[in-house]
Hints:
The complex is a heterodimer of chains A (190) and B (243).
Chain A: H1 22-32, E1 37-42, E2 45-50, E3 67-69, E4 74-80, H2 82-103, H3 109-122, E5 134-142, E6 147-153, E7 159-161, E8 164-167, H4 171-180
Antiparallel strand pairs in A: 1-2, 1-8, 3-4, 4-5, 5-6, 6-7
Chain B: E1 10-12, E2 21-23, H1 28-32, E3 43-44, E4 48-53, E5 56-61, E6 65-67, E7 70-73, E8 79-83, E9 86-93, H2 94-115, H3 121-134, E10 141-149, E11 153-159, E12 166-168, E13 170-173, H4 181-187, H5 194-211, E14 219-225, E15 228-234
Antiparallel strand pairs in B: 1-2, 3-9, 4-5, 4-13, 5-14, 6-7, 8-9, 9-10, 10-11, 11-12, 14-15
Amino acid sequence: xxxxxxxxxxxxxxxxxxxxxxxxxxxxxxxxxxxxxxxxxxxxxxxxxxxxxxxxxxxxxxxxxxxxxxxxxxxxxxxxxxxxxxxxxxxxxxxxxxxxxxxxxxxxxxxxxxxxxxxxxxxxxxxxxxxxxxxxxxxxxxxxxxxxxxxxxxxxxxxxxxxxxxxxxxxxxxxxxxxxxxxxxxxxxx
Amino acid sequence: xxxxxxxxxxxxxxxxxxxxxxxxxxxxxxxxxxxxxxxxxxxxxxxxxxxxxxxxxxxxxxxxxxxxxxxxxxxxxxxxxxxxxxxxxxxxxxxxxxxxxxxxxxxxxxxxxxxxxxxxxxxxxxxxxxxxxxxxxxxxxxxxxxxxxxxxxxxxxxxxxxxxxxxxxxxxxxxxxxxxxxxxxxxxxxxxxxxxxxxxxxxxxxxxxxxxxxxxxxxxxxxxxxxxxxxxxxxxxxxxxxx
Lengths: 190, 243
């Protein structure tokens, strides 16, 4: 559905009369049209996968990483504008390192997710910036709970914790398949 | 210009257009001297210790605060809470340790709010270390940070004068601790019960208080475990050992 912005979509600092911020919606479109990304929280860990759409046969294998470690216990994956993803990974690595340095413990998944959510959200509040065109999955191990958790953050900065999540192209088909699985009995290998 | 009195000084003079100027050299301010209490500053002379047991920790301290030879407070409380299940023992300058523990208490509270659960003792120790190390040449603070968390159970971290942070099964500190190193090494055993640990702390502290002029008064202990914090008080005439 391509909605008519008619002037209400000129910046992040503008609401439309029906209460939407169009720029954030458009950022969501960038995500919807990009490669699929799937996360699954299994019995013994979290698995994350990203569909890497290779445009060029001359591309060297391994280049253009989509899943990144941000600490020894955490990783993030993204889909949408890949260049935006690099900036977010960089920010996440700093956050995790600073947290460890300051508080002496691994940054727990929900704290990392909230901080990234704040970061995403910040870019939706200024007229001069554009939102990140990204959906980001955070997979991290929580020391105290003794298990890994799966979170997803959308371009607006909203984040939830998931058993399984899918974004990008063909997400509906992916979600249908995921709902059929009994994730609590599957191992990461399986 | 005349030199005013200082610990050591040297004169440097140049002939010619520049007028001779005197240079005062103060070895203490060059960083050669250790931080010292200022004149009239309150000193937590002290004997402090903390011992971990299976499921918690016991912290203990004497209660003497002195300014020079005058005992400013003979019933002071050197065991200071920084969070629900994390305490610290303070020794050195009363002002410095109060300032640091106040800051750490605020930071831990904010941290725990974001975290949504009780913080790790390691985190508290990490915060203490940050200040004790960064400002080492301006502070005189010997801190023992101890408490209970779900991940490690009871843990004890010693943060002495330079700002090192060392996790230990038990830690002693303060001027009185020098007299009880041998006693503690011989008395301590791994896997003591809660009561055995508390008695160990009381006995060791009473020996330190008996020998150290800067320690004395009453023995305060705090036992921290999963369920809460239990304060105990032993009056001066009921301590396990005295001359």
